[in-house]
Amino acid sequence: MSTIHDQAMNYVYQQVLQRLLSFFSRAERTALQLLIQRLVVAAGGMENIGQFKVLVPQSGLRDGCYTLALLRAAQLTIAGRAPATFQLRVASLRWSGDSPLALQNLHRSYSALFLYDDPRVEVLMVDNREVLPFDHRTPVSNEGREASRVNLLLVGHCRTWLETPELWDDAYLATAEYYSQIARWNNGVDAMISTETKGSQQHFLEGLNRALQRVAIAGPELVNAGFEALFPLLDGLGDDFYRELRADDDRIAWRPEGEFEACRRTSFIDINDMMVGKIEDRWPLLGEFLGYEPDDLALYQGEAVFADPLISAHVRGLYARFIEGRAYEAGIDDYVRHTLVDMRRKQVAESVCEHLLASYDNAGGPEQLRVLAEDYLVNGFGLSETQLVCLLFAPFIDNGKGLERFLRNCHPGMLVAMPDLHRAMQGLHAPEQVLKWITEVSGLPVRLVIRLYATGPVQIHPPAQSASENTDTDQAGSASSFERSTER
Fold first, then answer.
1. For residue 118, is it within any domain?
2. 41-80 per-position pLDDT tens digit
3. Residue 353 is assigned to a structural domain of this protein
4. Burial (Cβ within 10 Å: 0-12, 13-18, ≥19) of residue 4
5. H or E element at residue 122
6. What range does the domain containing 446 cover?
7. Judgement on whether residues 203 and 104 belong to the same structural domain of the protein
8. Are residues 147 and 286 in the same domain?
9. Three-class SS of residue 445?
10. Which spans does this entry mark as compositional bias, Polar residues (predicted)?
11. Are 187 and 261 within 8 A, CB to CB?
12. Does residue 477 sit within a domain?
């Protein structure tokens, strides 16, 4: 019975391969053969290919789905030629910015490629540091949502009020920690595959380097580095990137415990050179075969790879209003102008620039944009505008150095309570109403505000040289495995 079942499944897999190949151009078929050669060499020869395991992170965005289809074609092609083929670990990181559309894209592509029941494929998700079987119907756990909210606020507060806020610095930490741990889980993987451009890889590493400095974890200086530097960097950072911000009894261990290798062996295989042809030529494969549905806002994301452009504009508007004393609308205009300059510097198609402009017009003006952004942040992250404005002022770190400025600008009625606020943030006795005010305004429990208060000034040292000015020009619409919240 087992032999008959195996024969039937092999027939199904070959049918999947034939249909998949029917969507490939001649150039893509050539790229597929080169990919197979690269994987065989990385495995140490065809005799070792059956023990070779490849990690391909997924987020439900376009290029990730296309990369997965290419790897599945390689896996099934080798299976038709040899006694064994490589194994796939397909994994996604769940967080509060997940959209139903992205999750549906994942499920449809997994189903079309017949991943779920193939013993050569692991289909996983990570929620609140726990590795689980992927299920697109399962929302982010309440614990995961709360951890995401708290971590976003904690990392965001580790800055001076003069720094333009990077609202999603926490996402760099969470994603890097996820890469490190999913590569170690259950006997680990041999390689991670990515089609990111060198520019996108550099942007991620620069964002990670900045976020690591915010949480007082030092990484090596990254100059002109790509993802070949990622795993050596992660190996020296430990398994908890938030350890300086939380007490020992306030940390969550990676689970299932005891199933993570102590020594990771993962390398990185860059296959960006195999992304051949024009983006528009991939839509039949993506839409007809994989069932991929695009989000209009995914056309361009720039360097702020986690952020919805409308949310980024909203944050810049609040920064102009509360920090710079200008109009909310002026901050939005500044952000749009900067983004357009960045897009044109990278030679993004003018039609994409026009589409981004139209997305702001369609929001219904600055006030309606503000309402939409507030709803998204409240519903997705439990983050109110009051708490976001508090984050912009970063009033707690460095012994509350910015507290008086924050109170004078936003809560003048609390100036009289400044001595009590300082006592509370030193962990000393303070009135209950003061403790309640700290929690409501910051969105953080007092014990974490106390840790922020004891944190010294954060000095961000940019890389000595950025490769983003002279590396690959990103294709319009490039969406990476860590570009998450835009497709919501």
1. yes
2. 999 999 999 999 999 999 888 889 999 999 999 999 999 9
3. yes
4. exposed
5. strand 121-127
6. 395-453
7. yes
8. yes
9. coil
10. 465-488
11. yes
12. no
